Amino acid sequence: MSSSPGDDERPVPDVVVQPDADRLARVVAEALVARLAAAQAVHGAASVVLTGGGIGTAVLRHVAELAAEPVRERVDWTAVDVWWGDERFVPAGDADRNERGAREALLDAVGVPAERVHAMAASDAGFAGPEEAADRYAGELAAAAGDGRSLPRFDVLLLGMGPEGHVASIFPGTPAVRDERPVVAVRDCPKPPPTRISLGFPAITSAEEVWLLISGEGKAEAVALALGGAPREELPAAGVHGRRATRWLLDAAAASRLPAARG
Ligand SMILES: O=C(O)[C@H](O)[C@@H](O)[C@H](O)[C@H](O)COP(=O)(O)O
C-alpha cells in the first residue's frame, strides 16, 4: 500500500481469497457475526456500516440465515447501530436505495430497533438537496459520538468496490476524493443514479476495521492496482483502511491479478 503523510499508522492489509462469490459471502457473514458479537462482549453494543452492491447484500442475507439458527456467536440485534457508507439520493422506498436492500435482506428479519437504523436521507425527506442531507447525517454521527467528537466508533465498515476502484460513492477523479468532511454530497456521479450521499475518507478510515468485499474478474485489475499502491485520487479503494485492520475479502476471480504470493 502507498503511504502518505498521516498514513504511517495504517495496518498492513489482510488479503483473504475464497473460491467463489457465494463462498465469499458466507464466510464474510460468519466473520461479521463473530466480530459484532465480540464487540458487544466488550462494549455492550456494536456498530456496523453497510454497503450496497451484490456481494454486500448477499452477506446480509447470509447473516439473516445465521441469525435464524443456533450458532456459537450470537448477536443481540437490539444493540447494533447500523450506518451506511453511501446512499442514492432518490425517494424513500425506491429500489435503488441501499437502505431498502439492507432492510429486505437483514434488518427487518432481525429486528434492529428503528432508533439504531441510521439511514441516509431520501430525496423526498424535505431537504433542500444532498448537501443539506449530508450535513444532517454528519450531525447524526456527531450526536451518536458524543463528547464533542465527530464520529462514533464503527466496529466494522463494509465496502464494495467498482471495477474502476470506487468505494462508497467516492469515484475516481471526482471532488469527493479530496473532500475531508466526514459526509459528502455527490452530484454528477459517473454511475447512475447521479445524486448521492457518501461517507468521506475521514469517516471511512476512522473505522476499527474496514472490510472490502470484492468478487469477479472485472474487479481484478483494480484490486491489483489498489494493493500495489495506486493514488487514491485515481483509485479510491487504494485510500481506505481501518484503524486496526483492513481486510480485502476476495473471490478467486477478483484476486486473479495479484502476485502469486498474495493468492
Ligand atoms: O455505487 C454503486 O452504485 C454500486 O452499488 C457500488 O457502490 C457497488 O457497491 C460496487 O460497485 C460493488 O458492487 P458489487 O458487489 O455488485 O460488485
TrEMBL record:
Q: Provide the GO biological process annotations.
A: carbohydrate metabolic process; pentose-phosphate shunt
Q: Which InterPro entries match?
A: 6-phosphogluconolactonase_DevB, 6PGL, Glc/Gal-6P_isomerase, NagB/RpiA_transferase-like
Q: Identify a single GO molecular function assigned to this protein.
A: 6-phosphogluconolactonase activity
This protein's UniProt keywords: Hydrolase
What SUPFAM superfamilies does this protein map onto? NagB/RpiA/CoA transferase-like
Q: What class of enzyme is it?
A: hydrolase
Q: What is its EC number?
A: 3.1.1.31
The pathway that the record names for this protein is:
Carbohydrate degradation; pentose phosphate pathway; D-ribulose 5-phosphate from D-glucose 6-phosphate (oxidative stage): step 2/3
Q: Which Pfam families match?
A: Glucosamine_iso
Where do the Glucosamine/galactosamine-6-phosphate isomerase domain residues begin and end? 19-248
Q: Which reaction does it catalyse?
A: 6-phospho-D-glucono-1,5-lactone + H2O = 6-phospho-D-gluconate + H(+)
Family stated for the protein in its record: Belongs to the glucosamine/galactosamine-6-phosphate isomerase family. 6-phosphogluconolactonase subfamily.
What this protein is reported to do is described as: Hydrolysis of 6-phosphogluconolactone to 6-phosphogluconate.
The name of this protein is 6-phosphogluconolactonase
What is the source species? Trujillonella endophytica
